[in-house]
Design brief:
By secondary structure, this protein is α+β, with helices and mostly antiparallel strands. The chain contains six helices and eight strands; from the N terminus they run H-E-E-E-E-H-E-E-H-E-H-H-E-H. It folds into two domains: 110 residues, Chitinase A, domain 3; 60 residues, Recoverin, domain 1 (Orthogonal Bundle). It catalyses: [protein]-peptidylproline (omega=180) = [protein]-peptidylproline (omega=0).
């Protein structure tokens, strides 16, 4: 792992790169699938390691967070994940509370402020359950420990402003053409090289996940993640 503290990535301007998180399929975010099931008796244990004097804003569901986190197996303390060794050491961007990370992390990072550090213990039912996660070498029924440092809390992509930005003709629904154009603009903004097929795959994935009534449009209600509060 690289020594020293990695550079912090600046928050996205005018929604910016963060908006892309709304649209990219989970596989491209490298976010694992949530575990099924879970028992009410098990909960996330949170230890605050550092709390800044100025603790604002506190994170809530739908916020766009920027954080570094290390993951360890509680059984032997071995590290299975380190965000500082991936993506050139940049902190991770993700939307809180919508399943882009395991449910235990969604819970563990609520009401957290920029600069705060936490150590959290996540039971198997809120992590990878009985299946485990072979790709990350997480065995079945594994209790996980994460050390988290939160850098930024931003307004998330599922906002009225974001919807209106994509809805060019202001008809309160997003067409395939509008989202296709939005994707092109986002891809041009971040400057990364992608195979042309990626655009089509993401576009199809967006409609598969969001066009619940299958009418070829994503309505404001279908777009709004807050209509589906799972926590």
């Amino acid at each position: 792992p690289p020594s020293g503290v990695p550079r912090r990535r600046s928050p996205p301007s005018a929604m910016g790169r963060g908006l892309t998180l709304l649209l990219l399929p989970l596989a491209l975010l490298a976010a694992p699938a949530q575990a099924e099931g879970g028992t009410a008796a098990e909960e996330v244990k949170i230890e605050v390691l550092h709390l800044p004097e100025a603790c604002s804003p506190k994170s809530k569901k739908g916020d766009l967070l920027n954080a570094h986190y290390d993951g360890f197996l509680a059984s032997d303390g071995s590290k299975f994940y380190c965000s500082r060794t991936q993506n050139d050491g940049h902190p991770k961007w993700f939307v809180l509370g919508v399943g882009q990370v395991i449910k235990g992390l969604d819970i563990a990072m609520m009401n957290m402020c920029p600069g705060e550090k936490r150590k959290v213990i996540i039971p198997p039912s809120l992590a990878y359950g009985q299946q485990g996660y072979a790709q990350a070498k997480i065995p079945p029924n594994a209790t996980l420990i994460f050390e988290i440092e939160l850098y930024a809390v931003n307004k998330g992509p599922r906002s009225v402003e974001a919807f209106n930005q994509i809805d060019k003709d202001s008809d309160k629904k997003l067409s395939e053409l509008e989202i296709s154009q939005y994707l092109k603009e986002e891809f041009a903004r971040d400057g990364k090289k992608r195979h042309p097929s990626v655009h089509d795959e993401i576009l199809a994935d967006i409609f598969k996940k969001n066009d619940h009534d299958g009418d070829g449009f994503i309505s404001a209600k279908e777009y709004n993640v807050y209509q589906h509060d799972e926590l």
